Amino acid sequence: MTDTTDGELGRWQTFGERAIYDSPWVWLGQVDVEVPGGERFWHHIVRIRRAAMVVLVDDQDRVLMMWRHRFLPDRWGWEIPGGLVEADEDLADGAQRELVEETGYRAGRVDQLIMYQPMVGAVDSAHYVFVGRDPELIGEPTDASEVARIEWIPLTSVPGMIAAGEIWNSGSLIGLMRFLMKAG
Whole-angstrom Cα distance, residue 36 to residue 81? Predict the structure, then answer.
């Protein structure tokens, strides 16, 4: 890996920004940028609140997954629980809250697994994936509109499900693949 921080070769300069749309979930705007070589223009960007997800595993080497429909691509798939974190909310607390709301389970402990940006260059949306251990069912999901069903999936089935396109969203893919790399 090459470090180009000395001299900041390739660094874009920013000179301000303007909002086009702003809501509690998303900010769409333009940033006044100058690229190496001197060209300056307004670059469209999207900022979305931080997201936190949980790879919840039990002592039988299974992961808790949700079968759900995503309307934008009009597609079904298996996902790990997660969602947007409130501005003043601790990331681990947000991950736990989403886990409980979507599945009715709480993790006895959570540890951060990985942070990633799903679409750098145009979207700023830090995603944090946690590993949850010692699951405890504490009630019914409070957000029943989120999922069609919830199941414990053997971790050994995950690579085949990814290959078959049954697990396809970025948070689930990155979280599960990172967990399996770390476990292997």
Answer: 41
